[in-house]
Here is the input.
Amino acid sequence: MSTNTVDNKKKVTTARCAEMKQRGEKLSMLTAYDFTIASLMDQAGIDLILVGDSASNVMLGNETTIPITLDEMITFAKGVAKGAKRALVVCDLPFGTYQGDPMMALRSAVRVLKESGAEAVKIEGGEEIADSVSTLVKAGIPVMGHLGLTPQSINVFGTYGVRAKEEAEAQKLIDDALMLQKLGCFAVVLEKIPADLARRVSEKLTIPTIGIGAGNGCDGQVLVWQDMLGLNQGFSPKFLRRYADLASVINNAVEAYVNDVKSGDFPNQNEQY
Ligand code: KIV
Here is the structure.
């Protein structure tokens, strides 16, 4: 019997995320970028699916998340939203579509919700994006925050190393998290920060924190699906747990197919009309 406490039928909403935190039930989130994978994850009981701008890396082969466009994100999110019946679908607003201009943030988020069917947006940053968060929340758009390592700012940070190790940056992160909560965010991602800090933030907030490389004190966890299923072999940070070796499965299957085609073994009598 499964030890999973999730009610697999009940639709996950932002209100339900808050209830889960109150009950001490952890939130499970994975990224997905297409209908097929989202359907499988949904059937397996995932709580939230994030159409992350990590699609820039894992789907489009870019070095960073900077180049991906709003149109590309909407295309990925469309498939995911159709596949997710129970999970809450959150879509990243990509770089350049919300920073510095709350009305642009509103136009971008409205497009995501109307055109893709995603139910919430995620945006990166703290007090620098307060006006955008506030405008989206007032428009009735659920917003997930994202603090710590914020990959859209890679050109400022210069590396993807652990953030907020020093007290000043840790204090700013705590202040930013409290501010995002006050502005009405329904959850906040904490990426690559010390576990003690993530636990402190999670204890201070009434909204759930969802960690990636932020330890076990968060209210939920998120991973990129290609990483956790072993498709992305070159990527092995300390925080990553691999649940499968799909790279080998695919490699073996493709090799077998190539051999069968070349030898004339595929298709056989039963595989033709
Ligand atoms: O884009 C993404 O996949 C993300 C997660 C890693 C949190 O933002």
In short: The two ends are 43 Å apart (CA to CA). The CA atoms of residues 42 and 243 lie 17 Å apart. The pocket of 3-methyl-2-oxobutanoic acid is lined by residues 31, 50, 52-54, 92, 189, 191, 212, 222, 224 (CB under 6 Å). The longest helix spans residues 246-263.
